[in-house]
Structures are given as C-alpha cells and as structure tokens.
Amino acid sequence: MEWMALIGYCLLAASMVLVLRQMNAAAAGLLTAAFGVLMAGFLLPQIKSLIDTVHGFLASLGMDAQYYRIMLKTMGIALTTQIAMQVCQDLDAPSIARRAEFCGRVALMSVAVPVFVQLTQMAVGALR
Fold first, then answer.
1. Residue 125: left (phi > 0), alpha (psi -120 to 50), or beta?
2. Distance from C-alpha of 113 to C-alpha of 101, rounded to nearest angstrom
3. Alpha helices of 2-64 — where are they, by DSSP H?
4. pLDDT digit string (tens) for 43-89?
5. Which of 8, 35, 60, 119 could staple 13 via S-S, CB 3.0–4.6 A?
6. Burial zone of 15 (CB within 10 Å; 0-12 exposed, 13-18 middle, 19+ buried)
7. Regarding predicted confidence, which is higher, 98 or 66?
8. What is the mean pLDDT of residues 110-117?
9. Rounded Cα–Cα distance for residues 29 and 88 (Å)
10. 97, 100, 86, 89: which is closest to 40 by C-alpha?
11. How far, in Å, CA of 115 to CA of 8, rounded?
12. How many CA atoms lie within 13 A of 69 on its CB side?
C-alpha cells in the first residue's frame, strides 16, 4: 500500500507544479527537483532492502565479494544517472540530460570491461 501513497504524492506534486508553472516557471522547476530528491529519500529503505537481498543471494552461492561490489556499483550508477537525467529534463534541459545519460553509460562500461576481460580469460583458460 505504500506505493499507492507515493503515487498519490506524485499526483499532488504534479498538480502543484502545473499551477505554479503558470505563476513562476523557475519555482515550478525547483519544486519538481526538490520533490524528486524527497521521493528518492522515501525509496532509500526499499533500495537498501534490494541490496541486502542481492548480498544474501551472492553469499549463499559462495561468490566472491568482488562481484557484490561490482553489482552494487552498477546499481548505484544506473540509479544516480536516472535521477540526474530526470532532474535535467524537469528543469527543461534535455541536452544536458542526454549528456548525463552518456556519462552514466561510460561509467557502466568502466565497471563492465574488467568483468568482461576476466570472463574472457576464464573461458580461454577452460578451452586450453
């Protein structure tokens, strides 16, 4: 039921932004950004729960902590990039949002390339 309350808050904030945009567009953009940060704060406990679940799963498999850190980094990069893009779009800066998306993709690649190299080395080693 918590998600229903969050959706209700979103609809309330959207209504407030719609009314405020007619009076002061800059203030409406700031309200939108502030609301986004507030919603992220509400979602942090759920995100922590997801991280704990992934950690427990990897621990039950006996996997190395290195993979947990990589997965945690990728989740953090994806979420941070998405929030930055949405804030930029809310502030009517779509070109900056695209640059934020590009930066996030490069950051994800910087995390993924070492894993790819390691998996390739393992595959080649198994074939020898």
1. alpha
2. 18
3. 2-23, 25-61
4. 888 888 888 887 788 778 777 777 778 888 898 899 889 988 988 88
5. 35
6. exposed
7. 98
8. 88
9. 10
10. 86
11. 41
12. 6
Task: Give the predicted TM-score (pTM) of the model.
Answer: 0.67
* Residues comprising the chain, all counted: 128
Report residue 121 as tokens: 């080395």
Q: Structure tokens of 109?
A: 């690649």
Using alpha carbons, list the distances in angstroms from residue 75 to 27, 65, 84, 100, 110: 31, 15, 14, 16, 14
DSSP 92: T
State pLDDT tens for residues 4-41: 888 888 888 888 988 888 898 888 888 888 888 888 88
- Residue 1 pLDDT > 70, yes or no? no
Cα angle: 81, vertex 103, 110; to 5 degrees: 100
Burial 61-73 (b: 16+ CB within 10 A, else e): eeeeeeebeebee
Locus of tokens 């894993």: 115
